[in-house]
Amino acid sequence: MANQVKRVDPHIERIKRNRLHPRHLELTATAISMGPNGVIRKDPHKIGFMGPNGIKRIDRANLNQASGSSVNQMQIEEQKPKHIIESPTRYIVVLPDLAAGRLSSHDKDVLGYAHSLANENTAVIAIAFGEHKETGWQDAGVDRLLELNDDIYQGFSPEARIQALVQIEQSLDVAHFLFPDSIDGGADLGRRFAAELDSRPVTHGWKPLEDSIICRASAGTQDLTKTLSKVMLLDAEVADPIDETQHAASTLDELELAVSAKALINDLGMLAVNPADISLSVAPFILSGGNGIRDWDTFHQAASVLGATEGASRVAVDDGFMPRHRQVGASGIWVSARVYIAVGISGAVQHLQGISQVDKVIAINTNTKCDMIKRADLSIIADSTDILNALVELVQAQEISEGESHAA
Amino acid sequence: MPLSQLTTHTLLSLGKHPLSGRTRRAEQDAKAFELAAKLGQCLGLHAGNYQDADALKSFAGMSIAPVCILEIEQSADPVAALSAYFKQTKSDIILTGSQAERGESSGMLPYLLAKSLDLPVINQVCEVEQTEAGLNITQALPRGARRAISVKPPCILIIDESAPEARQTAYGAAMRAEVGKLQGYNETDTDAASFNFEDASKKPKRMKKIKAKTAADRFKAATVSQAKGGQVIEPKTSQEGAEAILKLLKEEGLVKTN
User: Fold this and answer.
1) How distant is the Cα of B75 from the closest Cα of chain A, in angstroms?
2) What share of chain B in percent tops pLDDT 90?
3) Is B59 left (phi over 0), alpha (psi -120 to 50) or beta?
4) Number of helices (H) and strands (E), helices first, in chain A?
5) Which of A99, A124, A262, A307 is most solvent-facing, going by the fewest CB within 10 Å?
């Protein structure tokens, strides 16, 4: 409301003027106020706190106020300048992998590169095949979003995806199709599409130049400069991700795609894999045990019930409870799991180095001061055997109830 | 169709040792050859110069199948030669590695071949099994996951790193082996003639960017460690602690939600 009238309470104004009034201090204790000339004034007597030596301190950098800093960050996010393209004449299409349903850092780098190729009339389209969980399209630099999650695009469906891309290529003025050159799917789809269009693609592009890009060749041992092509497959860190602008990410719905469901390749679904067979360095879910474990049988049972790959700290391996090839850390294996449960591991520096790539760490420990708890996203302060037993019971109870519901 | 009646071709290329630079068998192609050994009648095929026959003998030394060179000129496109060959000689399965160890190494060959022969192509194959309906293929996905795929031959299969290890090559058998010779179709690859290869330069490490706008923010970024304290729970019962863990595992999709 533009014509909002500022109302003044005359009683409060009177109290503010009367220094002898009992409520005077309460109403005037504002550290920051506007001076008579419209300048913001800070009263140094009213801000700050008492330091440990009895000296008054003013925390100008907000170092000690966790909540205060988060408020500042929120404001910065809101203030991001908007990057809006009303009527684009040209498009750049990015096909993110969406590994685990979210934009990976590789996907974001490719989106960043797309914007380095774009001009003021170019919109960056992201095409999301299949189901996904991503919500941060606007902040990642997506101007238009096309979500294709019909049944024919689910799982491994290269033929349907290529049909859709070819139709998009025919109906829009697309300058480049950018794919992350990764084993999560981009490398395969991009090469299929390049073969379909019969255009020589940029592959393993890693260093953009003005009108060309340096690509890795000879299995990564040589460099080759190629001119920009219609289809480009790009390595990670090809460009910086977008993080200073907010994009529209509006739905692109003027397209009508006619994709036939006929396919020569049939996806029969995912196979059950024994977690113990997965190499520790690539395992997605690791249950790792250390010196704090008293009952190793419970630990092994928990790993098999949860479907986790087993890992161990150096102490557990030295003591002979786990084999050497299960050791996680600087002298063992560097893991890259999505979730890592550290049971009874205090977190030596070497061990924390080994888990630096892990997304989420859960610590179960009795010592609240240990380094692992500082690293962990969730810490449970309790005896490891009790927690693991309770976890096994919970998961088994859930499986039984599921089995009953299926039977009924 | 019983196993023995399937005809398989494995596309072989010359490898390059990453440190010494010495010519060797390409490791992925050796894995593809190993997989082909289980699929009945097979031929190892290399499109290139017959002068490389000595280097290709290490494939013959695996004693799986005969090795043959489809001879083309230095500047010719191997895709065109292979495509012309497979239009005359039918093959049920064509096995390849995912990228060459020399040259452009774009990994496009199997896809271009599939396009010109109009065949389905499947990548990251680690196991192949013959069934009555066709082939059951296990595809290796990142993080140790596996996917089952069925396809009817003829098809092109691209081998994954996680396929079974190739057997060693026997020196004596390799030296005794004869490498066959076929005349290939020559079509000049004009783009490739202008390629200028240089030694790979080192990728720079990405620096952390500090985007502080005020002096206070810069000071804070320089002094305060980015310690993000996680949630700490001191559960009253072990049940409570286990539920907190299970909640996080369900959010990450590692334990099924009911």
Assistant:
1) 16
2) 67
3) alpha
4) 12, 21
5) A262
Least confident of A30-44, A195-209, B89-103: A30-44
Note the pLDDT tens digit of each residue in A345-370.
999 999 999 999 898 999 999 998 88
3-state secondary structure of A265: strand
For residues A293 and A310, the answer to whether their CB atoms sit within 8 Å is no
Q: How far is CA A303 from CA A362, B44, B176, in A?
A: 14, 44, 52
> Is B226 domain-assigned?
no
Q: Is B234 helix (H, G, I), strand (E, B) or coil?
A: coil
Number of domains in chain B: 1
Q: Do A267 and B258 touch (CB under 8 A)?
A: no
Residue B221 lies in a domain: no
| CB-CB contact of A245 with A81 (8 Å) | yes
CATH number at residue B22: 3.40.50.620
For residue B204, tell me if it sits in a domain: no
Closest chain A C-alpha to B140 CA, distance in angstroms: 10
B79-102 confidence digits (pLDDT tens): 999 999 999 999 999 999 999 999
Q: Which residues of B touch A200 (CB under 8 A)?
A: 106, 108, 191
How confident is the prediction for chain A on average, in pLDDT?
A: 88
How far apart (Å, rounded) are the C-alpha atoms in residues A396 and B24?
53
| Cα–Cα distance for residue pair A342/A364, rounded to 1 Å | 6
Q: How many residues are there in chain B?
A: 258
Report CB contact under 8 Å: A267, B152: no
Instruction: Say yes or no for a CB contact (<8 Å) between B203 and A192.
Output: no
The mean-pLDDT minimum among A2-16, A158-172, A198-212, B62-76 falls in A2-16
In this structure, of A129-143, A153-167, A191-205, A254-268, the range with the lowest mean pLDDT score is A254-268
Q: What are the chain A neighbours of B201 within 8 Å (beta carbons)?
A: 214, 223
How many angstroms separate the most distant Cα atoms in chain B?
A: 79
Low-confidence ranges of chain B (pLDDT < 70): 1-4, 224-229, 256-258
User: pLDDT value at position A75?
Assistant: 45
| Cβ atoms B255, A275 nearer than 8 A | no
One DSSP character per residue, A97-115 reads --GGGS--HHHHHHHHHHH
Q: Point out which residues pair with B140 in neighbouring strands.
A: B146
Domains of chain A: 82-251 (3.40.50.620), 275-404 (3.40.50.1220)
CB contact under 8 A, A382 and B143: no
Q: Which of B26, B23, B2 is nearest to B12 (CA)?
A: B26
Work out how many CB contacts closer than 8 A connect A with B: 231
By the 8 A CB rule, do A191 and B108 touch? Answer: yes
How far apart CA A219 and CA A223 sit, in angstroms, is 10
Element (H, E) at B35: helix B27-36
**Residues A277-305 pLDDT 10s:** 888 998 999 999 999 999 999 999 999 99
Q: Which domain holds residue B95?
A: 3-193
Q: Which residue out of B79, B101, B106 would a mutagenesis test of the A interface target, given it has the greatest number of A Cβ atoms within 10 Å?
A: B106
Question: Residue B10: inside a domain, yes or no?
Answer: yes
What is the least distance, in Å, from the CA of A13 to any CA of chain B?
36
ipTM: 0.90
What residue type is assigned to position A320 of the chain?
A: G
